[in-house]
Amino acid sequence: MQHYDIAIIGAGLAGSLAAIALARDGHRVVLVGPRPVIADGRTTALMDQSIEYLKGLGLWDEVEPLTAPLVAIHIIDGTKRLLRAPPVNFRAAEVGLDAFGYNIPNAPFLEILEGHEASLATLERITASAMTFDIGEVEARIGLEDGRTITADIVVGADGRRSAVREAAGIETFTWSYPQTAVVLNFSHELSHQEVSTEFHTESGPFTQVPLPGNRSSLVWVQRPRDAEEALKLPLDVLSRTIEDRMESILGKVTAEGVPQSFPLSGMTARRFGKGRAALVGEAAHAFPPIGAQGLNLSLRDVMTFVELVGRATGRELAADIGDRFDGRRRMDIVSRTASVDLLNRSLLSDFLPIQALRAVGLQFIASAGPLRGLLMREGIHPGSALRSLKESLWERVGRQRA
User: Fold this and answer.
1) Is 199 helix (H, G, I), strand (E, B) or coil?
2) Which of 1, 17, 151, 209 has the fewest CB atoms nearer than 10 Å to its CB?
3) What percent of the chain has pLDDT over 90?
4) For the structural domain made of 2-61+104-175+267-344, what CATH number should be given?
5) Separation CA 393–CA 114 (nearest Å)
6) Residue 198 near residue 70 (C-beta atoms within 8 A)
7) CA-CA distance, 334 to 265, in Å (whole number)?
8) Ramachandran angles phi, psi of 372, nearest 5°
9) Residues 6+ apart with CB under 8 A from 235
């Protein structure tokens, strides 16, 4: 029976990045999970903090050619309601950055990670599914689909919304649903996107264009489920014209590529993010609509925190309370991000006039107040930094007054 320091269940982006980081710190790691049957057609916008982490892992030089920078984000109220919010523009230069982050196609990103996994001597990749779990006080025991059993000091659940690790650890969830489905695809366009992402807020949810290299972009189009079904049935030429009309032709003629994919939208947060010898990262811990590029960036902060908490390998058994400590470290970030995305999404769906008015006034205030916009941008890129900056500024003022 093979024993590891850490067993990571789920070989998506979050699980793969965690495995690479932990193996490079000298831990004996096993990454368990089958390869995807269908390539993931989505893209991921990784913000500055996440990009710096990829650079630290030595991955960025291979990933960068796949990416397009996001130098600005434009939010446009595309509703037909009486109370409409003004356009809001966020520019990376306002906070001293060349780009907020970079948009990366998921499938080739995962291929790069698989190549690095194979090169690490302390990382073993098992493509069989994990079937059974016994997470005890001394170790975690995992039964595999191929009949083998492995053990580990710590088990990390990176196995998605229906996490078997979460269930085995006895961690309950709080779940909710939205009357929405996200249609995702890539498209080419006549005019340059100028490295700007444009997010149209509609009555059914956001319609978000994110740059890819060249005159290409990815699209996340959140619609009512029935409308999404109809969109998936459209011939590509009709779908292309529909997208162009939705975008008010700001990128000229549009040509949709490949086969669109769809994902029903719901929300979930675990009641705990770790317990004993188990820790949850990514969508095993939290899931919410694709708004504001928060999903994988939040998952990467899970990974960063776990790797920091575990530390470099010492040859000693990992502590039995790592899951509990991880839960405490991640709670505020996850709860606050989940709540803010949920609130923004529900404000788009609400037909209640006072809610629409509050949203319009809030966006008007952000559009006109440069310092507030800067705080929000810094908070989106580096969570907690806006609060620290505000606190330091207040203390500086107090110090000057006392002097």
Assistant:
1) strand
2) 1
3) 63
4) 3.50.50.60
5) 44
6) no
7) 18
8) -65, -40
9) none
85 pLDDT higher than 70: no
Rounded to two decimals, what is the model's pTM? 0.84
Give the per-residue pLDDT at 390.
47
CA atoms within 13 A on the CB side of 252: 9
Q: Please report the beta strands in 11-113, taking only residues with DSSP state E, as ranges in sequence order.
A: 29-32, 43-47, 68-70, 72-77, 88-91, 101-105
Which pLDDT score, from 0 to 100, does residue 91 have? Answer: 86
- Residues 126-146 have a mean pLDDT of 96
Q: What is the pLDDT of residues 189-198, one digit of tens each?
A: 999 999 999 9
Q: How many CB atoms lie within 10 A of CB 190?
A: 12
Looking at this protein, which amino acid is placed at residue 94? E
- By residue count, the chain amounts to 403
Radius of gyration of the chain (CA): 22
Alpha-carbon distance of 1 to 150, in angstroms, equals 6
CB 140 within 8 A of CB 154: yes
Taken in order 347, 349, 351, 352, the sign of the CA dihedral is negative
